[in-house]
Amino acid sequence: MTVHTRHGDASDGVLADAVGGRLSRVDGPAKITGAAKYAVEQQLDGLAHAVLVESTIASGKVRSIDTTEARAARGVLQVLTPDTIISLRTASDWLGTPPPDKPYCPLARDITFSGQHVAAIVAETFEQAVAAAALVKVSYDETPAIVDLSDGKAGDGIPIDAMTKEWGDAHAAFASAPVRVCAAYNTPREYQAPMEPHGLIARWEGDHLTVWEPSQWLDGMARTYAEWFGVPFENVRLVSPYIGGGFGSKALALGHGAVAASAAKMLGRPVRLVMTRPQTFTGYGGRAATRQTVALGADHDGRIQSIVHRGVNETSMDGMWVEPLGSVTSIMYATPNFSSKQNVVRVNLVVPGAMRAPGENPSAFGIESAIDELAHEVGIDPLEIRLRNYAEQDPHAKKAWSTRQLREAFAAGAERFGWARRTPEPRSMRDGNQLIGWGVAAGTYPVRRAYGEAIVRILADSSVEVESSSIDMGQGTYTILAQTAAETVGVPANSVVVKLGDSRFPRAGVTGGSRLAGVMTGAVYKAATSALDQLVGLAISDPRSPFHALQANTLVVANGRIASPRGDGPDLSIAELLNSIGRDHIEATGDTMPANSTAQDRYKNYTTIAMALPHTEGDYSRHSWCAHFIEVRVDEDFGTVRVSRVVSALDSGRLYNPKLAESQWKGGIIMGIGQALLEEGIVDRRHGRIVNNNLADYLVPTNADIPDIEVISVGIPDLHSSVLGGKGVGELAIVGVAPAIANAVFHATGKRVRDLPITLEKLI
Amino acid sequence: MTKTTIPVHLDINGHHHALEIEPRVTLLDALRDRLGLTGTKKGCDHGQCGACTVHVDGERVLACLTLAAQAQGRAITTIEGLAREGELHPVQAAFLEQDAFQCGYCTSGQIMSAVACIREGHAGSDDEIREYMAGNLCRCGAYPHIVAAVRQAALEVAS
Questions:
Q1: CATH architecture of A6-36+450-607
Q2: Which one of A142, A219, A498, A594 has the fewest CB atoms closer than 10 angstroms to its CB?
């Protein structure tokens, strides 16, 4: 077990440079000096600036767009409307489903949500474009909108049969259970709100398109641009050197990208388009609002006999988003009877999208609140009831867990938090006028696996270069790939240069679902092993090599030097060896694709998500796990809730870099605190608008909202999950935070809040 | 056509820059779009997130809510001007050591705020640091490490 220590730089005795070491971010110096150039910060000659105009109604048709004044405004180069923008082709979806053969227009005539792109201005300067955009006059024929799930017109929605999970006879077992709890749990619209707004620079050279755009998936987005514009995939280059946060929102090419690339093509100049902060609330989807009911039937000892779960999430009028609400419900606890079904309901909003742990996050809010209610009902400690219902295997897939250190997480977290000192009754712990509550909840996220490829080059100056079209949005890809190459080749990490974020590099699938680290460390490990084999092979076999006469079977490379393992013979730097055999570099490509993969397989793997491996493939069910222990202080008079202490124990398998993994875990926990107490997209019911579409009114946690947070790693290497034994880090830690806080609030106040966020009016 | 631009002279990181810009150009856009000083970030353009924090005459200022023309004749320091002769400012070094950032997009603003926070004498305790750093949002959630970095740097600056 690795206990986080703030100032320690060693972990498990591992050198900082090696996999598992606490190496500081290798991209850190560029970020702390302002030298890191993010995508839209490229300085290009002749750059023109685009600004979007968006719909002010939620449903209806654009009757007319008067651009007279805008066109006459100073500096304006172009006014794009549905009538003037070039026609594009519809692109396939992220599964690679062939698209319908019809044109695609990123500027709308038919309005299905407020904030839809209807026009764009391109001008010489940003200021001119902003001013001219305000002069565009759009008139509409408005029709009644369905504003959200609670709208009387919304209905029950569309059943999603693929979400149905059932075994035993859940309804009968619930009806006959001695103890029954049943409640509804709701989560509102939530927004990723990365600090870097979405935007891009698009530049055409002939029929070749270069797009500088923050991206969680260069190859997937390049495919979409290629299909929109009817050019070969190879003609599109995506560049995304640093990404200012994504949290799921930067994986797909979106309408604003189509507008900017169209403008650049029409104008024959590079065009930059960056969404305003308010536009980021409607230019792409946040987390869908959800509704769940969870019914637990149990015996008097709190052993679950049946779980009946129903879920609903909102989606858009013309797009489909399913937030899998039964994902945690179906695996967290052992139960002989289970039923989960889900509907989606169409409302007038932008199609929702992925936000940190889509599915697992709201799912855990339901089941982890419900089991706390059951614990109270039967009078059993909330931690004890979780252990009593511990799932020894995957209850749904009926397969063994690859690894599940959840029992260890409960034990380590409880010990560190001091859980044994908790008094069970609500309102029984107090400090002056503050009611103190202690809550616990578990979380989980599946191990998503896919394939990636990388090039490793050993250069004549003893340095090593790694290239991959994968990305680093703060998870630490630059750093862990440097550590992987350094350890595998046998050089110091500071002589490894990792190059990411260019679709010309060897390809990678989407950075999402916590899959990238496992995929790419595997690919770099293979490429580096292959490069090392070549290096040693040449050192032994090349007649010009000083090692040739040694007739050794093998050689060792360590700290950038190559020598015989017996210690006899020469001891050379890699540079000296390569120089002696007349080579300026050695290069190897490595990938984790199955050996017989065709070029078509590879294209499909890197540009769609169709080839991702199920987490229950083969004999095992693979998941990361965590347990959160949280203290809240509730002001008895005002109902304000402050999180005062967090201890979380997490099983992400082997950590490639604990320093960076701890940062991601804490970040997930903090986003979970925001979800529990602050974050809610508020809908203006008259106009179907998000009214708090900015960072002052959509409240994300500030520094003053967050206490110190302690995280404990309880993971062990899981070689069923990845080449080097890691599971997932980034998505995991947010899962279970909101129910842990809701449970703590119940313990503090005796009030059960089942609608997030837990704001003061729900407590007084 | 009538002239719509004005001459603006800016003193940034000890260097003089002469610009001919519209009066409505913000200091933030002047830095990023006219001078290539993109270390200062645009997160909201409304003074809500703190990503654009720079120093004007030594005080922290939101560059998105400051017109470039307002900064004429005043000493502007951006993240690019913080390190001296290649040596990191103690706050920068502490941010790296404490892993006080992930995506890096809020980091310039956090560091500029932290330098001022220490100079103002508002880094006396963890709670004080949290309060006086609360104007700089970090969606990656690096807050506990930011507090640790500011605490560490405050001690180094004092010694």
A1: 2-Layer Sandwich (3.30)
A2: A594
